[in-house]
Amino acid sequence: MHKALMALSSLGITHPGFSRKSLPMRNRHTQVHAPADCFDFLMTSPTPDSPWVQVLDTQDMDQHALAQQGWALQYEQLSPGQFKGRIHQVHLPEVTLLREDTSIALRQRGRLHESVYGFAMALQDSSDLFFNGQRVPAHAIMCGKGDEVDLTTPPHFTLMAVVVNRSLLNPLWERMYQKPLAHWLEKQLVLQTTDIKAQNLRDMQLTVLDQASALAHRQHDPQALRQLRDEILMEWLEALPAKVDTSELPTLERRKKLVDRACELMLGHADEPLSILEVCSRLGTSRRKLNYCFQDVLGTTPIKYLRSLRLNSVRRALRQAAPGVTIQDIASHWGFWHLSQFAQDYRRLFGELPSDTLHKR
To answer: Which of 170, 184, 259, 286 maximizes the CB count within 10 A of its CB?
Structure first.
């Protein structure tokens, strides 16, 4: 961390004694109210040697995903309430630093890019955090190739991350360890680090993000900027364990594959939802096994998750509905035949009626 702060100092930015408390959901740069205009940017024009800073508040889950430019992500709401989010990104040459705040429990899936690698850490401990089917303990780093992302997060969650191009990571890794990039980085893993290293990472990255606006708007030395980038990356890499055990990964991948197949099966019969027993029969598994796989992968039950998934699908369809399409049309397509009960369940999850969502499209 000391070298990273020295690199900051060389750019004319001093460590302000940054507070590690979660930032409020509202910030001074960007406020968003209408779904038709759900995000705005604070940025500088990117050049090879100058950073691009983006700070935004969102009040819509889908636009929050779309705002992360270049990444293909989809969010599903899992806990009741209206969504509020914040994205704070700093784009350095071949590196993106990220802080993401979200107000409700979510599952986010998709991909960043096959030529990048990501390293991430939660700012607060939680037993309800899962990364690619792996429960994430305190002081753990989530890492791997960016061609697949599957993250389930609790309410009031803050994530910090760094995304780096392979063209930069590979030579840096070889310079640090005198060997090629580790093969396990091609997977998605949860790796334990020490309390001290985790805290150093948090302090370092939050300091850089907090000072990013000043960094973007003042004259700076391109070499110092690249040094800062390299020091940030080395801080992350040095926090990784010396040895990585992947022996349990095949078992974890099988459980996640079973959960994904169950979800695909349910979505494939949207208008006539299958019972859990029918799902088990088609998958050739027991109800007990399906239950513990869902608990291990997502921290919830199949019935609860799949109902949330269908409600999220209704919400997405309402937002994209063509003129003349009714709420009943969409609800029945997703297997909700009792409209009054459906409206209650919808409002309980999203904090608004289906008609409210339809009118906002």
So the answer is: 259
